[in-house]
Structures are given as C-alpha cells and as structure tokens.
Amino acid sequence: MPVLPSFLHRHRRKVATAIGVAAASYYIFRLVKSKFFEIGSQLSANLTSRENLRRRFEQNQQDATFTVAALLSSVTDPIISELPVEVITDELQAKRGPVSRSSNTPSQSGDDVNTETTSIASSTITIIDVDAETQQPKRTKKQLWNDLKIMAVTRAMSLIYAIALLIFFTRLQLNMLGRQNYVKSVKAMSEGGDREVALDQGTVEDQLIQNEVNRRYLTFSWWLLTRGWVKIVSNVREATETVFESVTPRTELGFDDLRSLIMRVRELVDFKNENYLEILLPTTKEGEEFVLLNNPCSEREFQATPTRELVMAPMLQALLDESKDLIESPNAKEVISGLVTEGFKLLLNSVQMKYFFIVYEGAQDEDQSQQNIIELEEQRKVRLASILAGITQQSHEMVAVNDRANAYLSAMNCLPELRNFSAIVYSNFAVDWRTMAV
C-alpha cells in the first residue's frame, strides 16, 4: 500500500479538519477583504459627498454676498431719497450766504453752529437734486436744524436695519433653493445614471417649472425693497423723535451720552419690530398675489398654463410657508439682532474715533521716527451738530456698492451667527425629501 494514501487514510479526520479550517480561513479572509473594500468605498463616497456638500454650501454663501451687493442700492436709494439730509444742509448754508474759502477757521462765537453746517456738507455726497420750485416753504434755522437732527440719525439707523434684513433674507432664500437643488442632484444620482444625467435634475418640463417657481420665490425680495423699508423708516423716525426731542444741536455730548441715546432709539425700534415678518414678506394671500402681479415673467421665458399653475402653486406656497416659519423662529431673531448690532458697533466706533479720540505726537523711537499716540479722551464733550456730520458721513459709507469698500457689508456678512443659521437652513434636507416623495 502506497505510503501517502495510507497516511491520509490513517489521518483522514485530521486532514479533513485541516482542509475545513483552511477553507473557512480563506472564506473569512475574502469576506473581511470584501468588507474592508466596501467600507473603504463607503468612506470615500461619504468624503466625496461631504466635500460636494461643503463646496456647494460655500458657493451658496458667496452667491448670497454678491446678490446683496447687487441689490444694495435698490433698498438704500429710496431711504436716502426719503431722508434728504443734503437738501437741508444746502438750505442752512443758503441762510448763511456765500461762504468764502478763508472761512474754514472755526467761528469764535460759542453759540454759532454754522460751522457744523459746512462740516456736514463737506462730509456728504449730494445724491438728490431737488428743483427749487418743488421745495417746501422756507423754514427757520431752528426748524431746519431739528429736521437735520432727526433725518441724519433716522437715515443712518434705518440703513443699518435695511441692510441687515436684506442680508438675512437673501441668505435665507438662496440657502433654501441651494438645499433644494442639492437634494435633487443626490436623489437623481442615487437612482442611477452617470453624473451628467444626474445633474440634469429631471425632464425639461420639470426643470422649466422648477425654474419658474424659483424665480417667483426670489421676486418676493421686492417686498422689502419697495414696502418693507417704508415701515423701517417709519419705526426708526418715530423712535428718534421720541429720544432726541430734547437734544438740541448745541447740546454737548460725551461718547457714553451719545451711545445711550442711540441704544435707546434701538430699544424702541426693536420693541416695535418684535416680528420682522411684515417687513420681509406679505402676510396675506392678497399681498402675495400683489407681489407676483408686479413681477410678471416674460412669455418668452415661460408660458404659464392652467396645468402648470396647478403644479407650481403648492411648490411656491411651500417655500413661502417655510420662509415665514424660519423668519419667526428664535434663531432668526438672534441673527437679525446680531447683524444690527454689528452695524451699530461700526457706526459708534467710527464716530468715537472721529470725535472722542485725541492724537498727539509721542516720543521718537530708535529709528528717530515720530510715533503718533491715540488715546480716548473720556471727558471730552462734542456738540451734537458736529456729531451729525460724522453720522451723515457714515450713511454714505453704508451704501458703498463695492463690498470690499463697504465695512458694514463686510462685517455683517462675516457674522458667525449668520453662517450658522445658513447652515441650519441648508442642511434641513428632510423638507425637500418629503416634497419630492409626494
């Protein structure tokens, strides 16, 4: 009997066990290897998905920043026109008569506030050209100064609120639509097909309808640009008149006094604006229809039919309802408050640097160069008439279209609370998944 068969026969159980163990080990190895590559593939897909989400989110925020810059003049120009500080300044200067070039030296009379008129005029850019025949009956100097006081403060504060709400609402709209597009692309990719087909996001008809719904939704910013700002100015003017009623142009204010007055105005405005919904969106069906009637689509771009309208109506209403819920949420109030705070902080800091800091020459350093030293003069008092010039100048800084040149836009756009709110809106995928599942 051959040796090998005899050996295998004698140890057949051991051999069978060894073969079984080897086979099981090989199977387990293949299984572990397969799972390892599967997990690796999933991790890679998750990383790609997260990177795609992050990239889309960042692009959305950039788009919102550019959109705000494009819409800025649409909301600020009407406020500038409604509160023509420059016109009153011209009237005050006209009452003084011609001002010679040598009149730059301050007046020796402590009671004369005419020098502040020149200061305000030199710190502003004439935006409104008013025909003399259409001007109101002439007012006294006292009336003009009172109007100037109220208008200058009201304009600066109204611009801060208007810009803050424009930034907030633009972020809200674009992040909702950006999230919707992202969810659609993910859903299309999960259903199969290559990337280009997935990104096509449905049929041509579906895309036409979705684009029109998005366009109609975006036109609701028209409400803030044409109606909302009126309510802002009304509320701010009323609060300003209440707080500054007893403050005359000759009143000398310390920085703490000025800040207290400005903050008191803000408290009154915020109390009235406990809910910003009426400023940002119409609250009735009639109001919504009014917005759409004033922003019709060209028939070349989209031809509305009864069938299409039946499809679009619930889609648009869902966007508006979600927007209203978000605007009334505690998170939204916190974001808007933070944006307004940034605006007031910049305004007060600018006025403080201009009027309440002193600059004097310090000691020479080792290179024999003179170093200027800037210190806050806490006891310094400045007449309101002078401060109004700085406030008016800041109003023009607020409306600068270039984001890089507009410190107010830059500061508000970089607010952490705004980014966090945008992330919350963008990541609320459940809303769009439910909508597409219907």
SSE map:
Elements (H helix, E strand, L loop, with lengths): L2 H8 L1 H71 L2 H12 L17 H9 L18 H50 L4 H6 L3 H15 L2 H24 L7 E2 L1 H18 L4 H4 L4 H9 L12 H22 L2 H26 L1 E8 L5 E7 L5 E2 H15 L8 H7 L2 H11 L2 H9 L1
Antiparallel strand pairs: 1-4, 2-3
Helix pairs in contact: 2-5, 2-8, 3-4, 3-5, 4-14, 5-8, 5-13, 5-14, 5-15, 5-16, 5-17, 7-12, 8-9, 13-14, 13-15
Task: Specify the helix fraction band.
Answer: over 70%
Number of helices: 17
| Integer tally of domains | 1
Question: Average pLDDT across residues?
Answer: 80
**Total DSSP E strands:** 4
Beta content? under 5%
Classify the secondary structure makeup into a structural class. mainly alpha
Strand count, sense and barrel status of the largest sheet are: 2 strands, antiparallel
How far is it from the N-terminal to the C-terminal residue, by CA? Answer: 78 Å
Strand order of the largest sheet: 1-4
The ordered H/E elements are HHHHHHHHEHHHHHEEEHHHH
Protein name: Peroxin-3
Subcellular location: Peroxisome membrane
Keywords: Membrane, Peroxisome, Transmembrane, Transmembrane helix
GO molecular function, one term: protein-macromolecule adaptor activity
Question: How would you summarize this macromolecular structure in one to three sentences?
Answer:
The protein has helices spanning 3-10, 12-82, 85-96, 114-122, 141-190, 195-200, 204-218, 221-244, 255-272, 277-280, 285-293, 306-327, 330-355, 384-398, 407-413, 416-426, 429-437; strands at 252-253, 357-364, 370-376, 382-383. With 438 residues, it is mostly helical.
